[in-house]
Design brief:
With 130 residues, the chain is of the alpha+beta class. The protein contains five helices and three strands.
């Protein structure tokens, strides 16, 4: 279902990061990576989920998006995910290409973004426009 942004390709990096096998993940929307706790998910991801929803629905408005989310691996372990999304065309068909990075391996950058409060979120906005 194109309207639901189902995954059509899964890299081994995705499998290693999330613990979800490509056979299970293909054809699903990546919402399964969101934290199981609604309160936790809303506290960390509500704003970003809205921005991503708008990105997926408005390819003309946005070319690319950088989003910072808390996701959960299959084993329930949370990780900070820097997700870059880009609208692409393949053989005349629209797709969204996504690359994710576990920011737990980049703790200094993550700390600067989160500790910066409004300045940190302004920096995230600046990074989105690069």
């Amino acid at each position: 279902n194109a309207a639901d942004c189902a995954l059509v390709y899964i890299s081994s990096g995705f499998e290693n990061l999330t613990g979800y096998h490509r056979d299970w993940s293909l054809g699903r929307n990546c919402r399964f990576l969101q934290p199981n706790s609604k309160a936790y998910n809303d506290a960390f991801n509500l704003r970003e989920r809205g921005i991503m929803r708008e990105f997926c629905e408005s390819p003309v408005k946005y070319d690319r998006l950088l989003s910072l989310l808390v996701n959960e691996a299959r084993d329930g372990y949370p990780f900070w995910n820097a997700l870059v999304l880009r609208h692409v065309q393949v053989n005349g068909h629209p797709y969204i290409f996504g690359v994710q990075t576990n920011l737990l391996h980049k703790r200094r950058l993550l700390g600067e973004l989160l500790a910066g409060g409004s300045e940190g979120f302004a920096e995230l906005g600046r990074l989105r426009s690069v």
